[in-house]
């Protein structure tokens, strides 16, 4: 990744690294309650994610994973609790472009004549002003992001002509180009083959190594140990947070998937 993006992700270079222990966690969620009418989506969810980690967010459908992401990005309102990103309120963090988000399904017309470079450049719109004319820093950031996801040779290709795995990498590149220190990915392995999944895992490890914190929601238990530094199991609240091996313990999985361990043979 270029120096331009390195400086955005790791302000201050070596000095920032030496003082990282003094910095607040990149993500702090405290006692979060979210309801949709009478439906309880999250009830007292609390978690903390340290800087530079890859955190897996695991739970069954309806466990609150998407609601948590939407709360962090201010797409839904919560009734109680607090969310801080890099020590400030999440809404302010979003305005300061400190949060990158890759949705599970992008709302895009795949036949629209827009190429890979143009899609990734959308990650820089917040820096351009109303004219949306790229400056040299925007061009550098986009090229660095394309190189990171290894799609620089396809940047003039129409977005709909790509494979499923390549499309995922384009939208990850768009988030990288934004330069946010916190990256949220909703089910990045959905709809891709095993080869593409391996490429995405390797890519996320590279992003993390550059200093970006990555939070990934996933159903893929098999990928947890090779991808994640820590795992959060969610069932409307956090039922486990810790290393991947502990997350795969049958007792913890039973809690996350709403099972009775005794009645289900240990949750297996």
UniProtKB/TrEMBL annotation:
<dbReference type="Pfam" id="PF00005">
    <property type="entry name" value="ABC_tran"/>
</dbReference>
<dbReference type="InterPro" id="IPR050153">
    <property type="entry name" value="Metal_Ion_Import_ABC"/>
</dbReference>
<keyword id="KW-0813">Transport</keyword>
<dbReference type="InterPro" id="IPR017871">
    <property type="entry name" value="ABC_transporter-like_CS"/>
</dbReference>
<dbReference type="InterPro" id="IPR003593">
    <property type="entry name" value="AAA+_ATPase"/>
</dbReference>
<dbReference type="InterPro" id="IPR003439">
    <property type="entry name" value="ABC_transporter-like_ATP-bd"/>
</dbReference>
<feature type="region of interest" description="Disordered">
    <location>
        <begin position="1"/>
        <end position="20"/>
    </location>
</feature>
<keyword id="KW-0547">Nucleotide-binding</keyword>
<protein>
    <submittedName>
        <fullName>Manganese transport system ATP-binding protein MntA</fullName>
    </submittedName>
</protein>
<comment type="similarity">
    <text>Belongs to the ABC transporter superfamily.</text>
</comment>
<dbReference type="GO" id="GO:0005524">
    <property type="term" value="F:ATP binding"/>
</dbReference>
<feature type="domain" description="ABC transporter">
    <location>
        <begin position="27"/>
        <end position="261"/>
    </location>
</feature>
<dbReference type="GO" id="GO:0016887">
    <property type="term" value="F:ATP hydrolysis activity"/>
</dbReference>
<dbReference type="InterPro" id="IPR027417">
    <property type="entry name" value="P-loop_NTPase"/>
</dbReference>
<keyword id="KW-0067">ATP-binding</keyword>
């Amino acid at each position: 990744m270029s120096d331009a993006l390195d400086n955005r992700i790791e302000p201050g270079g070596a000095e920032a690294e030496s003082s990282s222990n003094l910095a607040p966690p990149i993500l702090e969620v405290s006692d979060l309650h979210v309801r949709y009418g009478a439906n309880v989506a999250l009830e007292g969810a609390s978690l903390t994610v340290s800087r530079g980690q890859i955190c897996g967010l695991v739970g069954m459908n309806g466990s609150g994973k998407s609601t948590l992401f939407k709360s962090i990005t201010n797409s839904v309102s919560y009734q109680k609790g607090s969310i801080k990103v890099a020590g400030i309120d999440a809404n302010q963090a979003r305005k300061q472009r400190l949060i990158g988000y890759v949705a599970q399904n992008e709302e895009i017309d795949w036949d629209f004549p827009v190429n890979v470079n143009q899609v990734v450049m959308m990650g820089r719109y917040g820096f351009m002003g109303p004219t949306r004319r790229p400056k040299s820093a925007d061009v550098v950031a986009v090229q660095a992001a394309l190189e990171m996801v290894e799609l620089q040779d396809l940047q003039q290709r129409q977005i709909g002509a790509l494979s499923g795995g390549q499309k995922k990498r384009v939208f990850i590149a768009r988030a990288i180009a934004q330069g946010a220190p916190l990256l949220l990915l909703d089910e990045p392995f959905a709809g891709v083959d095993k080869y593409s999944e391996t490429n995405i895992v390797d890519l996320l490890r590279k992003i993390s190594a550059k200093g970006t914190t990555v939070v990934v929601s996933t159903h893929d238990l098999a990928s947890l140990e090779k991808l994640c530094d820590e795992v959060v199991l969610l069932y409307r609240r956090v039922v486990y947070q810790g290393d991947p091996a502990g997350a795969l313990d049958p007792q913890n999985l039973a809690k996350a998937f709403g099972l009775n361990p005794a009645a289900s043979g240990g949750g297996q």
